[in-house]
Amino acid sequence: MEIYYVEDDTDIAQSTRTYLEQNGYRVSLFPTIREAQIALREGCPSLVLVDWNMPDGHGSALCRWIRANRKGLPVIFLTVRGDSRDIVDGFACGADDYVVKPFELEILLSRIRALLRRAGDISGRYLSCDGIVLDREAMQVRCQEEEITLSLAEYRLLLLLLENQGKTLPRERILEALWDADGNFVNDNTLTVTIKRLREKLHQPVCIKTVRSIGYRMEETLCWKENS
User: Fold this and answer.
1) Rounded to an integer, what distance in angstroms lies between the CA atom of residue 75 and that of residue 51?
2) How far from 163 is each of 80, 81, 159, 169, CA to CA, in Å?
3) Fold designation for 126-218
């Protein structure tokens, strides 16, 4: 399971990451809310830890964004001792739990484990590439946070491409996977038209590539760099 940890204090961030990784978690560090949000647009961890007071804003803004765009993603916020306003604000914007700083690492670990037991690991619910996000459970697609309405054929095609990121899919395989399995006869032109409409609705994304004379491939063209 992967945890995104939003924390601007390098010493706290590094020591916490070391401890959590020793206990079986993968931890990605983000020193600003902006960098965490960029990463969340491209992927979905199992849980987010966010320091409530960050140099580029308040953790509540990130929490609200998560609740709007990554439904079900567990969030634990970290607040200074005795700041009841932060605690009220944290739960108001949808956070699941909080830990008071300075905290014992064992206590933080127990809170993480308890929350993941309740919420489960939703990281596999979302597939993403270059700002295109597909929510398997809701069958919902967003492109740069804009909700996109797709036909069933377009949705199934996008899902297949996202599930096989980095792989070139021959046209014949795509046709078999999307249509022939249902016993429907389609010609090769159907795929060309469906790809064209999908690209138009997603604003011509460069991550959907045509492999000449073979088929199509979806791959990341944007990147974010983790600060550690």
Assistant:
1) 11
2) 41, 44, 6, 11
3) Arc Repressor Mutant, subunit A (1.10.10)
Are the beta carbons of 6 and 30 closer than 8 angstroms? yes
The tokens for 138 are 């809701």
For residues 141 and 132, what is the distance between their CA atoms, to the nearest angstrom? 7
Q: Single out the residue of 162, 163, 187 nearest to residue 175, CA to CA.
A: 187
pLDDT-above-70 percentage for the chain: 93
Q: Are 205 and 132 contacting, i.e. CB atoms less than 8 angstroms apart?
A: yes
pTM, full prediction: 0.80
- CATH entry 1.50.40.10 includes domain 2-121: no
| Per-residue pLDDT tens over the stretch 188-208 | 888 999 999 999 999 999 999
Per the document, the length of the chain is 228
Q: Which two tokens stand for residue 26?
A: 């993968």
